Automatic annotation (TrEMBL):
GO terms for molecular function: ATP binding; phosphoprotein phosphatase activity; phosphorelay sensor kinase activity. It is found in: Cell membrane. It comes from the Bacteria. It is an enzyme of class 2 (transferase). Keywords: ATP-binding, Cell membrane, Kinase, Membrane, Nucleotide-binding, Phosphoprotein, Transferase, Two-component regulatory system. One of its GO terms (biological process) is cellular response to phosphate starvation. Residues 41-265 form the Histidine kinase domain. One of its GO terms (cellular component) is plasma membrane. The lineage of its organism: Bacteria, Pseudomonadati, Pseudomonadota, Alphaproteobacteria, Rhodobacterales. Its EC number is 2.7.13.3. It catalyses: ATP + protein L-histidine = ADP + protein N-phospho-L-histidine. This is histidine kinase.
């Protein structure tokens, strides 16, 4: 615990007393450290692809000057690195937008069944590339919620895309919607949307930190998969704005289930 102590005299000429004021600044210092860590992380994440691009430019201008085949190879890698920077900047903007709107309650009426179907349609190509498969049946509960359609689309896109990416080749991703009369944390009726994969699963030590910005279990693998390390942080912030929450359960060797819990008025 850190304290700031301010020391002041109570009257002008004659000293009647002294006022000692203790202010607990632990949270302020923690917030400040988080902000500094975030800036350092962003700089590092942007610098890595940028350094690679600069290196390839030098090679194309130098040793590979007369080798069109090598130049093509380097250009392809440069393009992939530039796309990575582009995705990172996109995710940073999403995160800052969600934080900015944190206090504004979203008000649109949304049919989650329709929304999930459009996410699955958008991700069909990704599933084909991974040999993955979706298992989704029309829910047998009413699926209307109040929210921000673009943001909820992003939540389910991030989670289902992660299930495909980290589940490995041929993953089965099941999406199940159910209703509970009272969620024990929200203390309200809620819709549960459980996204399960039969991939390698996640070690329990990582679970509490998964939604931290830039937290990855295997940085190399995440980067290879095109991850920015911000996907689950964005999910968490969007769900906070919707007064909902994310629950993660996983068993090594068997798979993971990410459950979105949204209040149902
Ligand atoms: P990234 O951009 O790296 O995918 P995320 O915030 O979406 O970042 O996810 C954080 C980390 O959580 C990932 O790097 C990955 O290691 C792990 N992860 C996320 N979803 C799954 C999943 N379905 N199965 C296994 N690991 C996962």
């Amino acid at each position: 615990v850190r304290y700031n102590v301010t020391f002041s005299r109570v009257t002008g000429e004659e000293v009647d007393g002294v006022l000692l004021c203790f202010t607990d600044v632990t949270h302020l210092q923690q917030a400040d450290k988080m902000r500094r860590d975030f800036v350092a992380n962003v700089s590092h994440e942007l610098r890595t692809p940028l350094t690679a691009i600069l290196g390839f430019i030098e090679t194309i201008q130098g040793p590979a000057r007369g080798d069109p085949e090598a130049q093509q190879r380097f250009l392809t890698t440069m393009s992939a690195e530039a796309s990575r920077m582009n995705r990172l900047v996109g995710d940073l903007l999403s995160l800052s937008r969600v934080e900015e709107e944190a206090r504004m309650r979203p008000t649109s009426a949304i049919d989650l069944d329709q929304l999930l179907r459009s996410v699955l349609r958008n991700l069909e190509t990704v599933a084909e590339e991974n040999g993955g498969q979706f298992l989704y049946d029309t829910p047998d509960v009413p699926t209307s919620v109040t929210g921000d359609p673009d943001q909820l689309l992003q939540v389910f896109t991030n989670l289902i895309e992660n299930a495909l990416k980290y589940g490995g080749q041929g993953t089965q991703v099941s999406i199940k919607v159910s209703f509970v009369a009272r969620d024990h944390v929200l203390r309200k009726p809620a819709l549960l949307i459980a996204i399960s994969d039969n991939g390698p699963g996640i070690d329990a030590v990582h679970l509490p930190r998964l939604t931290e910005r830039f937290y990855r279990i295997d940085s190399h693998r995440s980067r290879e998969m095109g991850g920015t390390g911000l996907g689950l942080a964005i999910v968490k912030h969007i769900l906070n704005r919707h007064r909902g929450r994310l629950q993660v359960e996983s068993t090594l060797g068997q798979g993971s289930t990410f459950t979105v819990i949204l209040p149902k008025k």
